[in-house]
Amino acid sequence: MNKVVEVKDLVKKYPGFQLGPIDLEIPEGSIVGLIGPNGAGKTTLIKSMLNLVHRDAGMVRIMGMDLSKNEREIKDIVGYVGEHQYFYEDKRVSWLGNFVSSFYSNWNNDLFRELLEKYQIDPKKRARELSKGMRVKLSFAIAISHNPKVMLLDEPTSGLDPIVRREILEEMRNIAGDEKRSVLISSHITDDIDRIADYVIYLLDGKVALYSEKDSLLAEWKRIHYVDGELPDSLQNSLFDKTETAFGNSGITSKYSELKALLDPLLQEGRVKVENLGLDDILICLVGKCKK
Length: 292
Known about the structure:
Elements: E1 3-14, E2 17-27, E3 31-35, H1 42-48, E4 57-62, E5 65-66, H2 71-75, E6 78-81, H3 93-101, H4 109-118, H5 132-144, E7 150-154, H6 162-177, E8 182-187, H7 190-196, E9 199-204, E10 207-213, H8 214-220, E11 222-226, H9 233-236, E12 240-245, E13 248-253, H10 256-268, E14 272-276, H11 279-286
């Protein structure tokens, strides 16, 4: 699969905090979810990928172009939505679209108007009259209307009510499915990433603690429920985070495919149960909060 974004050895230093070195790739037509607690470096990473924050070291390449040499060309093909939306508050939506259009060679005003209608944004309204959800939708309309190949989204669903959040997430699916666009979206809401992402990056203390295809990750991490004496010692010893449950006992494996041949007969006999884990459960273990 083609790589539309490559980041190599990216470093950004602040007093008391260092992001990186970061290595990552974003495949064409994929949604990559960037998860991590507040302060992990998610916003710094995304801004560094656009030179909105000057990186101290490393290389960023987007659509084959080096950010150090082709910043203007890269920004022409990237759509960016930040956590906070900054507009000229007294200006009308239609004016904002006309203003932004001058920065992009491929701006499509017909598409912008279509998106305003789709998102039910009145072009005559002033920015200060828009709700939080409408401001995010306007940011998306602006970010999409120059037909970007890559979308970089920094906590776009933060602070939104559940209904608007769901609408925004559905739009992200549409964006990625349209013309093989690629999306990098950061969030501390793991349910959002679980819902839409093809790949997951977990950022912790400025480092990549995990980068995996989401479905592969979820397929390997399982909680096994069993009754004492019903599980071979070799299998039981391979589990961690062991706890007592209503079924008897349980433990987690991160290598379900390796245990499946041993577990299948026990499953058929009803001697064990297998429970799927969510991203939240997996990330808790990855940061060392599961019992060994």
